[in-house]
Design a protein that fits this description.
Blueprint: H1 15-21, H2 30-33, H3 44-50, E1 55-59, H4 64-69, E2 76-81, E3 88-89, H5 91-103, E4 109-111, E5 117-122, H6 127-136, E6 153-154, H7 163-177, H8 184-190, E7 219-222, E8 236-243, E9 246-254, E10 273-278, H9 283-297, H10 308-315, H11 317-328, E11 348-351, E12 357-361, E13 367-368, E14 370-371, E15 374-375, H12 376-386, E16 390-393, E17 399-404, H13 406-418, H14 429-432, E18 434-436, H15 454-467, E19 477-480, E20 494-500, E21 503-508, E22 519-525, H16 527-544, H17 551-557
Parallel strand pairs: 6-7, 7-8, 18-19, 19-20
Antiparallel strand pairs: 1-2, 2-5, 3-16, 4-5, 4-13, 8-9, 9-10, 11-12, 12-17, 14-15, 16-17, 20-21, 21-22
């Protein structure tokens, strides 16, 4: 192997590095401050540590100004996120999450773009009870946030082949094996006693080290031809290679990530690059060594430039590959051929390879709630009570009622019809291909609306879609309230990033299969300009597209924008 000398960026550590260093392996003073009844909030240092335990302190921004006038502290509440590799939950676990959202949350569940549950509105004094009940259901929130490996994503379509269950098992192993080793979570939330004294029981974070990673780290596994988990958006993407019906291994892609900052060209989205192939049993070794490279060479001074994509770009892709192989002690094989044809979900009933049925339900914005006459939450609760298969949360914020027996299919179909639940097929394909992050009122980073606004905007865009005969044309459209990229806006054929209340940057030209980034088209525009632009663009697309041509490809072929070959020109 080639020896090389690599250097991490030089600079004073960020304040978050100090917090981690002083935290005693993520404990801080969380145990004490969560008992404080004077305030519904917690100190900032502890809030930074709270992320490693799967939660963020937020406040209701709709109430912020009025509470300030009344000289009240913000309406503090906690968001809680579950660690659930591959998005798979049992019916009993669904019922637990439903019940907790009702008892302690805002009575809704959010299905996230990383295939897990998110609850909002949990008050400080209910957090420990909530965490314990989640634990009793055999779920947890460990490392669902924070500077560690996050929820491991996995293709969510079990109907395609037996390979999917095999790949799911690998995602579970990765998720478990890459957890932090600190017992802080168990001591603070589950009342386990800390064992002190002899060296053999002292905690050692052999992989993460005492400072953990410079920023969050994301892993996803895709099974071609479906790229539903947007494998190129991951820090580490694994692409399943199937030959003659057998999983022979994974292509390895590194350096993806969607976040950026407005006005800062040193920050940008980036797609992961394929660097080779490994056998199934080698993926943990690969993942661990990639994580240690980021641990050792990531930017700990400037968090905006701390993601692994920037480490890869700074050191060079080939340099990182050589370093990875040096740490592995063996070389990756040449990448093997693969093909993706879409990154969306397939709705309605589909029969799987083992005779089981799977129903993919459209969940707009991933919000499971009872709203007016649409009793989605109640309907799914009733289905969970009789379902004997599992639930699978998709990376597109939808839900698969999976592994349904022929016997149960009739009863579940009756409940779907009784509660008016829908596979979304009566909506336009554009709406079914939409994603939105939470944004306002709970996200502290949001500059504009997303989840609450995109459905309203789509009502108006659908008029244009219908006028141009495009009702059944799948076009990925994504909206985020800020540039952090939680809805993977940079991989939407049409993307909107919130800039200010009612104002968005508009992006075009991503690939339908998730393999190419979009590019800035219009900056800081409101609804009137958005509709005006789309009226022209969609009319041209309807009249001038080639057979089978997707909207993102059309935008590039016709010169509306240029293809993005480097994340750094995403802004231009």
């Amino acid at each position: 192997m080639v020896k090389q000398i690599l250097k991490a960026p030089v600079g004073l550590p960020s304040d978050v590095e100090r917090i981690k260093e002083e935290s005693n392996y993520l404990r801080g003073t969380l145990k004490e401050v969560m008992l404080d009844q004077i305030s519904a909030g917690i100190p900032d240092d502890d809030n930074r540590l709270m992320k490693f335990h799967g939660s963020y302190l937020q406040d209701d921004r709709d109430l912020r100004n009025e509470r300030q006038k009344q000289k009240l502290e913000p309406a503090y509440q906690f968001m809680l996120r579950v660690r659930m590799p591959g998005g798979v939950a049992t019916p009993d676990q669904w019922l637990v999450m439903d019940d907790l959202a009702q008892k302690y949350g805002n009575e809704t569940l959010k299905l996230t773009t990383r295939q897990t549950f998110q609850m909002h509105g949990i008050l400080k004094w209910n957090m420990k009870k909530t965490m314990q009940e989640i634990h009793e259901s055999l779920l947890d929130t460990i490392a669902a946030c924070g500077d560690v490996n996050r929820n491991v994503m996995c293709n969510s379509n079990p109907y395609q082949s037996d390979i999917h269950s095999e790949v799911y098992e690998w995602s579970k192993r990765l998720s478990n094996d890459l957890l932090p080793r600190t017992k802080a979570y168990h001591e603070i939330w589950l009342d386990e006693e800390k064992v002190a004294g002899s060296p053999e029981v002292e905690e050692v974070e052999a992989m993460y080290g005492p400072l953990y990673l410079p920023r969050k780290f994301k892993i996803g596994i895709a099974v071609p031809p479906s790229n539903d988990i947007d494998v190129f958006s991951q820090d580490l993407g694994l692409i399943a290679i199937v030959i003659d019906g057998k999983l022979v291994g994974f292509n390895v892609a590194i350096g993806g990530g969607m976040g950026m900052s407005h006005g800062d060209k040193e920050t940008y989205p980036q797609i992961a690059k394929v660097i080779g192939f490994c056998k199934p049993e080698q993926i943990y070794d690969v993942a661990e060594k990639v994580i240690t490279i980021q641990r050792d060479y990531g930017n700990r001074s400037e968090r905006k430039n701390a993601r692994f994509k920037y480490t890869v770009d700074r050191l060079g892709l080939e340099t990182v590959k050589v370093e990875l192989e040096n740490r592995l002690g063996w070389r990756l094989d040449e990448a093997k051929p693969y093909h993706f044809d879409h990154n969306g979900d397939r709705y309605g009933w589909l029969r799987g390879v083992k005779g089981k049925w799977h129903y993919t339900l459209f969940v707009e914005g991933g919000r499971v709630a009872d709203i007016d006459n649409y009793k989605l939450k109640t309907g799914l609760r009733e289905i969970a009570k009789i379902h004997t298969g599992d639930f699978r949360l998709t990376a597109n914020q939808n839900l698969i009622i999976a592994n349904v027996s022929s016997h149960k299919k009739k009863k579940i179909t009756e409940l779907i019809e009784h509660f008016g639940l829908t596979d979304g097929k009566h909506y336009t394909a554009l709406r079914r291909s939409s994603l939105a992050c939470v944004a306002l009122p709970t996200c502290g980073l949001a500059m504009a609306e997303a989840e609450r606004y995109l459905p309203v905007l789509l009502d108006k865009i659908e008029v244009i879609v219908d006028e141009n005969g495009l009702r059944d044309e799948e076009i990925t459209i994504r909206m985020t309230g800020c540039p952090n990229g939680c809805a993977r806006h940079a991989l939407g054929e049409i993307g909107f990033i919130g800039k200010a209340p009612g104002k968005y940057n508009m992006y075009l030209g991503a690939a339908f299969d998730g393999s190419r980034l979009s590019k800035m088209y219009r900056e800081n525009i409101g609804e009137e300009e958005i509709l005006s632009e789309l009226r022209v663009l969609l009319s041209h697309y309807a009249k001038e597209r080639q057979e089978g041509e997707h909207f993102g490809d059309f935008a590039i072929r016709t010169g509306i924008i240029k293809a993005v070959t480097d994340g750094r020109n995403f802004h231009e």
